[in-house]
Design goal:
Layout lengths: L4 H12 L3 H23 L9 H12 L10 H26 L7 E3 L13 E3 H14 L1 H11 L5 H8 L3 H20 L5
Antiparallel strand pairs: 1-2
Helix pairs in contact: 1-2, 2-3, 3-4, 4-6, 5-6, 6-7, 6-8, 7-8
Length: 192
Amino acid sequence: MTASPQDITGLLSDWRDGDPNAETLLLEQVYPVLRRLAQQRLSAGGRVTLSATELANEAYFKLVPQRGVPFHNRSHFYAIAAHVMRRLLVDHLRERNALKRGGDVVQVTLRADGEMGGAQSDMADALDLDRLLFRLERINARAAKGVELRYFGGLTLEETAEAIGVSLPTAKRDWQFARAWLYEQLTGPPAA
């Protein structure tokens, strides 16, 4: 049984207010989602020594001390979770690469249709994506946040728009811009 977004928002509010039962109920509702998101990120390719359970656990335990953060709603919570997962995954990959230069990396695919996932087209590792997102933040911070939410947080365009606080058409334009920009960065400028 999955709670509605309103139930999760209520649990987040109760948890922030110190309700001892809210954290247990919140864990039951959000942990399966965190684990699914972790599995999606880790199954994108490559052999990573970090399991989906470990990534979900680490993400959850990074979020627990955030009790003072006023999570506005479910989307806001998952937006913060997406950022935490991004940092954890990138830190893990940096540590692995430091231990073994050129070691295995998680592969991120940007397909021609602009979606990310699968191993069908141009490949870039998650570290490259992280570097590109930092560059994109300087050009268009909102579009970079949208990529982070969609890729690392698994949010839909509608949820992304809500989490960022923009209209759906604006979120779509940002997503189209980000996809095109990332694709060009990963593949090089179009041939003349």
